[in-house]
Amino acid sequence: MAKKKNKMKKKQWITLAIYILSIILMMPGIFVMYLNAANKQFKGQITFGSNNHDYIFPQKPVHLSGKIVSNRDTIRLIVGFWRNYITGFGAEYETMKVSLDSLGRFDVTLPQIDHPFRIQIGDAFSHNLLFNRNQIAEPGDSIFILGIIRDQDLPSDSNFTAVFTGKGSAKYQCIQALKKNPAPTMYHIPTTESKIEITDSLINAKLRTVSNFSKEINQDILETMKADIIGDCKFNLSLSIFSDIIYNKSIQPNVKATKKVIFDDIMQKDHIFISNDILSQSAGYTQYVYLKEKLRILFSLGRNQMTYKALYENIKSLYDGKLKDKLLAYCSLNTIDLVEFFEGSDPDEFRDCLEDAANNIKVPWLNEPVKKLLSTRAKGAPAFNFSLPLDSSSRRINLEDLKGNVVLVDMWGYICTSCYRFAQAFHEKVYPEFQNNKNFKVISIMLDPYADRDKYLQRLRMENGPAYTFNTYINLYGGKNEQIAREIEKYYNINVAPFIILIDKKGRIYSTTIPFFTEKNSPNIEKLSALIRKALAES
To answer: 20, 294, 334, 492 — which has fewest CB within 10 A?
Structure first.
């Protein structure tokens, strides 16, 4: 009985704390007195990326501490950050799990970085974000966070809010203030004219919010935040208006012509009075420009004729300076788009574009990851020589032992719809042509750091789900506690599943831009078959 009373009292105290904190969060002006002295940051020119600074910040860590309250039983706080933000995924993104004590208090110090960078904080259980990648941190920030997570059915910007004090906190207060003007769901707005009008109003409202912090935030960072706003809003607008142009391969000519008129009209008014150097630092604006140039090529060539090289050359010809460097790096490193949108790309064209990017990108922190991709994923690069356990045995298979064969390596996740759909379509439509060719092998690897050997064996036995692999393949375990598998992920910077590569007879990369498909009637089936035939024909 006493335990039950104590539990009830605890819940009452949590409810009261949430109520009081909710009132505080509605009155951020109370904290203004703390901000003026705390936010005197460096006012010089800055860049978001190592190795190319007009001003090098002192090596200082970012310190985050505070208290989170919630009516949830469990909170799992995750701090993510990007030392250098280009595409935002893969090896660019690092995370830290943050421990909370029984009162919801936490204290975490991020690595020392000598330039402004992007961070996000979220709750892994409720999937709510306190702030996303638009939050910029500066070396030396020391932020106290008083936050609240509201347990709701669906994640929302309003479910995780906070107030901030301390050195550099104006940037964080600004992002929270922007959450009060959330982007609408564009697909529910009936007309294009209304979508454009609402987007313009939203941009203006958000820019006014940012301007309220102009005396407290570094001017270049303030301008970058504005570029993020404009880019994100225009990206969402473009995606909602032109989604059929992007994804539909058989769009009617009259629909395409109508959309082309709308696109041309939007492009005529697409002016921004922010320098290219600042725009190159903006995550949202880079993403928007990439989509805009993709649309430009789509209207010109059509969905079926568009190639990765056409997009790359278009970007290269239209932009200059640091913005050109950023866009070429984004185009080169956006390997998810190579699979999901282009559904594969000619391996020679992909290598040529990477070589061109590596030779032309001048900003070091943008150039370095492109060169790494060229040395690991381009045609002719050495394939990673892994050694992994075979099936359920302790025997290990080395990739080097298969030299002299063309090898297709299919790396899949334990729970992955695209993985099993590709595997089944490949096995039925492509594999029969090559299964009796002694110089062709298929390696299937469960590459999943969270799936253990028992789960792997379930997949081999085709238990509890669809077939991810087949017993005629060389089946290898790359799951939990298999360190070599993690080295494979790092070497290729794998950020999508399945990840499929074709290796030539000399153990070199033949293609990492495999024609991808999940349907058994896809035209990419013949493209992949032709690619394998070509690889087999070469010595």
So the answer is: 20
